[in-house]
């Protein structure tokens, strides 16, 4: 069993990763948008609620440090899932941590 801080780090890291994956799908996968956008928005909301419930200053600092790595992994996963070219996505995270944690924010 992981010590509590490491367990929370992994939980928050995974939840943020999944939220970013769904934000990228929502923003870029136009071919599936009409069929899936409600599901993607629901997943984003679910993971944001989970993250915000256990968020601490230390976890926020950890996510800030890891955001680019999390984003790059999410882009990889989305390109594999969708067949979209990696060049479609921003090279660096196009989302700030504040945006990712804001329950009311979605990309245009």
Describe the structure.
With 108 residues, this protein is mainly alpha-helical. Helix content is 75%, strand content 0%. The chain contains 4 helices and no strands. Helix 1 runs antiparallel to helix 2.
Short description, anyone?
This protein is mainly α and 108 residues long. Helix content is 75%, strand content 0%. It is globular.
What order do the helices and strands come in, and which of them pair?
Layout: H1 4-28, H2 30-54, H3 57-82, H4 97-101
Defining traits:
108 residues; mainly alpha; 4 helices; globular
Spatial gap, N to C terminus: 41 Å
Low-confidence stretches: none
Order of helices and strands: HHHH
How many helices? The count is 4
Strand content: under 5%
β-strand number: 0
Helix content: over 70%
Rough outline:
globular
Rg, nearest Å: 14 Å
Largest sheet: none
Helix-and-strand structural type: mainly alpha
